[in-house]
Structure formats: C-alpha cells, structure tokens
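Batch 3, record 17
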Amino acid sequence: MERNFASFVKKESLHILRDTRTMLVVMLIPIILMILFGFAISTEVNNVNVAVVAPERTDGVHDAVERLAQNGYFTFKGYISQNEIDQCLRSGKANAVVVFAQGYDRRAAQAAAGIETKPIIQLIFDASNVNTAGSASAYMQSVLLGTASQQAMFETRMLFNPQMKSAYNFVPGIMGLIFILVCAMMTSVSIVREKEVGTMEVLLVSPVRPVKIIFAKMIPYFAISCIVLVTILLLARYLLGVPMTGGVCGIFSLSLLYLLLSLSLGLLVSTIATTQVAALLISAMVMMMPILMLSGMLFPIENLPIFFQVVSNIVPARWYIDAVRKMMIQGLPIMAVWKNCVILLGMTAVILAVSLKKFKDKLE
Amino acid sequence: MNDIVISVRDLTKRFGDFTAVDHISFDVRRGEIFGFLGANGAGKTTAMRMLCGLSYPTSGSGTVAGFDVRTEGELIKRHIGYMSQRFSLYNDLTVWENMRLFAGIYGLTAKQTNERATELLERLNFSSERNTLVGSLPLGWKQKLSFVIATIHRPDVVFLDEPTGGVDPVTRRQFWEMIYEAAENGTTIFVTTHYMDEAEYCTRASIMVDGKVCALDTPARLKQQFAAESMDEVFRTLARGAQRGE
Amino acid sequence: MAVIEVQNLSKSYGNVKALDGVSFSVERGELFGLIGPDGAGKTTLFRLLTTLINPDSGSATVDGYDIRDEYLAIRSRVGYMPGRFSLYPDLSVEENLQFFAAMFGVTMEESYELIAPIYKQIEPFRKRRAGKLSGGMKQKLALSCALIHNPGVLFLDEPTTGVDAVSRSEFWDMLAGLKEHGITILVSTPYMDEASRCDRIALCCEGRILEIDTPEGIVQGFDRPLYGISAKNMFALLERAREVNGVVDCYPFGEKHHLVVGDGFDEKKFRNALADIEGIEISTVKPTIEDMFIKLMKR
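Prediction for the assembled complex:
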C-alpha cells in the first residue's frame, strides 16, 4: 500500500509540474507582492526634503540640522525665512520645515532644567500624504531629540522599527495571505477538478481510501509552499533588510503549522464545492477577504469596530500574522507567542477533523 | 427563385501545413435534407464553420443562401439557423424568454416575435408551457424546442449538429417528422453527424474522410454502391482507409 | 450463481425518479446491455452498483457482496469506466496506466496478458498525453485502465457515446474478446444497433426496464406485421398513411417509414387509398429492436 501512496504523490506532482502557468504564478506572486509592498506601496519615511527656519544659527541649531542632514531618510534643502515656508511646501521644494524658536540654545537648556514649558521646535509638514507625514514627523522628532532627549518635555520613541519601514509590517501580512492562496486555493481546486473531470468516480471505486487520496494531494502543495516560504524569508532578509532577530527557526516552525492549517482549509472547501469555479470563489471570498480586512494585515485590529474585532478572532491569519510580526520585528522567541501557536494548532485540528469527516467516499 | 441553396467549389482550409478541408465541392438543393457525415477529425466542423460564415476559406469558393462565404459572412449568419445538441437553449430562462431572446438576436420585431412564437408553440402543442423554465423540460422537448427556435427567423438553411443523439426512439421520430415538415416547406436542412443512423433519414448524404468528400449520393444508392446493409457499414468501409485521427 | 443481482432498486433525486423499482440479474461471463436513451436511469444504476451512491429502496449484490453494507469489498473487485472521459489529460498514456495499476496494488506486467489486445493498439502513443488522444484511443486507454487489476466484473457506462462508427465497432470486438477471459460485463448504450452485440439486453426508459431478453427474443416479441413504405414525398406519405384504416402506427425509420398494422389492414386497399402519392413502394420488413422499443414505449 506504500507503493500506491508514493505513486499518488508522484502523479500529483506531475499535475503541478505540467501546469507551468500556474506554477509560475505561484512562484512569482510572493516575489511580486514582496517587491510591491516593500518598495512601491510605501508609507515609510524616505527621501523627506527638509527646509529649516532658524532666526539665529547657533551651535544648538547647527547640531540639530547636522543630525537631520546625516540621516539617510532626510535631505537637508537649506535655510529659508519665515515667510517663505508656505511657498516652499506648496511648490514641493520641501516636504517638511523645521522652525527653531528664538533663543533656541538658551531655552533648550531651560527646558532641560524644567523651567521652560513652551515648545521650542515647530515641525510643519506637507500632509497631503497622511501616512508619510505621520511617520516622518514621528521619526523626525526622535532624530531631533536624539541627543537632547534628556531635555525633552515628552518622549516618543519608535521601538523595533524606528524608521517605520512599512515592509516590516507587510512581510508577515503577505505570508499570511500567500500560504492561504497557495495551499488552500490550489488544493481545493485540485481536488474539485477530479470531481469535475470524473476521475474521482474512478478513484472512489477502488480499494484506495479517500484519506490517502487527500494526504497524497497535500504533500506536493506542502512542498511548494515550503519553497515559497524560504523565498519569502530570503527576500525579506536580504532584499528588504528585515532583521529577524528573534530567530528564523521559530518563524519557520510557526509557518509550517500555518501551512498545515491552510491545507486543511483547502480540503474543507473541496468538500463543499462541486466545481472548480466554486472552489476558487469560496477561497477568494471566504478566505481572502477576512485576511485582507480582519487579520491586521492592512488595518490594525484595534482600529476595527468592536464587532469586527470579535469576528477577527476566528480568522487564523490574524493569529499567524500577529505572531510572525512579534518574532520578525520585535525579535521575540517563539515561546513568547505560545498563545498564538496553541490557537493555530487548535484551529488546524478542528478544521482537519471536520473536513475529513465531511469527505465522503460516496458521491452523495 | 434559385434552386441551389448551398454551392461549394474546391473549398479548402489549411492550418499551417495541415489541410483540414481539402478541395470539397457539392451542391445542396432547396428543401433537401443533406447529411454531412464523417469521423471525428475528418474536417466536418471546419467545413461547417466556413459555410456558416464563421471562418474564411484558404482557397476555393462557396455560396450559402446566395451569399459568398469569403466576403459575406455576416449576411450568411442572418439567413441561416443553427442547432447543436451541445449548446441550444438557456436552462434558466423560460420557453418564451428563450424564444424572445433568439428572435431578438436575429432581428425580428416585437410584433413578428409574438406572432411567430405563438404560432410555433401552438403547432408544437406547447402553449401551456410557455412560462416553464427550459431546464425543467424533458430532453426530447428541449430538442424539439431548440429546432423550432433555430427556425424562428425562417432561415433558408438550418444547420443541425448531431441533432438526435441520446434521444429516445419515439421523440426521435417526432423530431425527424418536424425536419421533414420544415424541408417540405422549403427549408434546406444540413445535418452534420457521426451517428450513421441519422444519415439514413437524409435525402442525400456525403461522407468526408481525411478532409475530402469521398462519397455523395442518396443513402439507398450508397448502400448499393458499397454492397452494404446500412449507412454504418458504408461509413466503416470508407473510414477504415482514413489516415489521420482527431 | 448470478454475479449481479438487482432487486426492486429505486433512487430519486428530488422529485425526479431516476430509477423506479428495477430488477434483473446477470450471470457469470455474460455480456449484458442496458439499452436506452439519456435519462433512462442507466448512469444512476451504474453508480448504485459501483457503490458510489446508496439506493433509496431495494437491494443489489455484486459478486455476492451487498452494495450498501459491503461496498469496500465490491470496490476492489470491479472495473469501472464512467460515462465521461475520466483519465488525467495531463498525464501520458503510460503514466495513467501506471497510476491506476499502483492504485490497485498491481503492476502493469501482471495484467499485461489481459490488456494486451487493447493496449497494443495505443502502445505506439504511450508517451502522448491522454488529453491529446483521439476519441477512440481515449476509450481504449480508459478500458485498459479499468481492466488493469483483472476485475471479475466490468461496468462500462456508455463507452461508445461520441465515438465514431469504426471505433465503436472495434470496441465491441474488444468486449467480445474479454468475455473469453470469463469477465462479466455490464454495458450501457443509447444506440439500438449495438444491442445485437450483447448476450442479453434490458430496454430501459424513464427509470424502468421495459423488457429483458436476448436480442433475438426481443425482436420475436414484435407480434404484428411490419411494412416499410417510401415515396417521393416522405412527409405527405407519413401524414396520409396514418389515416388509412387498419394502420396502428407509422413513423419515420431512416429512408423508409415503418408501418405497423392491425387486423383490418389490407395491402391492396392501402395502395388504393394512397394511389395519388408519387413513387410509392411497399414491402414487408423485419422488425428491429428499435421497433420493439417504440412499441413498448407507446404501450
């Protein structure tokens, strides 16, 4: 019986390998998404042109400007006068203007001593791109306050991702999406194809048990997903420079669990759908939409209405993305996300059990 | 009125260096039931596509209902009817909606549509079913209905693609009666099929092998010529020599 | 002992009765044909006997095993060729065969003797993808795959539909060859002319069996005189012939119309009544299975 299992896996692999177009799409989508989210669709602070208004060019001012100019994310465009600010931002010569108050050095020292309470630096931003402005202002504050932080009246620090690089945020999201796409969608379509073509009839009228058919189908897709996983991790590390200080092993093991979950989901879909089109639609509508909307991939879960926050608890991607984020960006070890692991494990068990129960060895 | 409805001379279609239809010539008279037979891959479908104005011949000439297959494809489409066993009617529309749809496609006015559809349903003894979904009709009824719809615009020629495969013997007879009647009223019937027993009903039948028409006569004379009991036997004698598959 | 034993089997889908109390039995080594149009319930019957679906009522055994309770035993003993092409189009001829062999835990070599007469015809194309084969070759491959584990019973659901006349005839020759190996074959077809190639046939219509007998026996059951009539205008002939006294039925039958007549029929009177129809010819003809089918359907 081992032999027929092996030949099943072989046959399934042949299907995949011969469908070059689908193969290409599966391999390219992660790469394209990574590049797209990593570079093109970016809310990160990059190339912010800064002009400075300083009534007196004191040492303190020079220090601060120097820090901005040295920073790779800001470009110092020169000094302007108070009444040029508006025109400068409108023309796009600068995206931000830093205004130092009269007597900056003195008041900075007073602020350090706790005497001065009024603001001494004003940041004016072109907020037509809200995201960029928001992240840039936060980052700029941290840069300007860098050396003078002990004198600051308040302290905001962006931990783990101080430049607010969006790729960091998107990598876990993309992973959450891609594996559902590859595992769930492709397995469900491939099982349903056998129903549609009629080969399922022949397979059922044979001594092979359906459970075997199913696991044999999962193996090649699992292998492909592993390749995709490695590709994504490599791209994340070397192309986008995600540090992954928490250890790749943890991320990898958690992802394997998530792959298994996606495969089970695909199986579940295949027990419901009778045509390939239906399988695609169910995968797209029932699985992709919640991932995009409710998993924290695009919108932070805390910002959702309470109802959707509750609903988001049953979206597996939410727990996966959250855990990967913690490990990839915060550098936490896998032990720190044990709760997510347990939840994902539970979900996998339930989905797998339900779909195996639902997968009948009869046509009705 | 011209008595030749379909006239084809040396009609040829090549795809690259593959000659799907190889210099075929024949005439079909008004009111004839013409059987166009051949194995899968013999070139039947390609030839019929050219006759329906869906594809241009590589060389040769032909007219259908008086229009040139090389230049007047659009006019041909308006003067022919087409019925296939595979695609015929929309199952999720009612009998009446299907009739209205196809009448509209062939440019009938609302008044014409109403008159003809009512008349056709009456002749089919089917008026009570006009608001029934086509999907819930028995197969035989669907087939009869799709023939009626294929002739709703009173075309000169109707192309039937394997019209009665899989239908029960009684319904099948009713179907052929309808075809006889249409032919009697001057409609030319062009039947493509690889079911040889459908060929027995034709006035004349042609048999295509490897892109060429290699026999054309009445079924009776063909059977005589090949000393065969049935068209099936005639066909097998001819098709065994075929070189190419599908 | 009967290899297939069917008793009062019924199956409905919604309010459509696909199969309505069907009973028959097939002996070992018999080639049994289910003849009937689409919608006769042939496919439903095959799915029941191959244990793909459960009956609503009635019972059946295949090779002594109950289709409901012992379906796993049946599945390893039968070969099944469903109505539509059911192989993997993206795998080659050889890969398809190897796959099905492995599924049943056999090797191609073990069954080679049985499938050789069929497989040899497609062996030259063994590297070709199954999807690129012609209809006749696909059918031969499907039959080889169904035979790979040397099954005792073979279920063939409309194997010749959509296949040209030459391949159809070859296919029946192959089935005759398989009978020599003692395989019991249940085959369905909508073509009446194929019925004569079976040992016994069941005429099926709308979920019921109209008659079961040998092909000769069925034809002998047609107990009325039958004439073939033709004329120049076939349509007029048809309409007029039906009005003549003593004519029970008249229907198109290829190049002639078949005329079923009753007691009050007189050939001379018939000719006189239709004297105005040009080129009329009348002769007695032998009834066919199709004539019998029409008679049974109209009863």
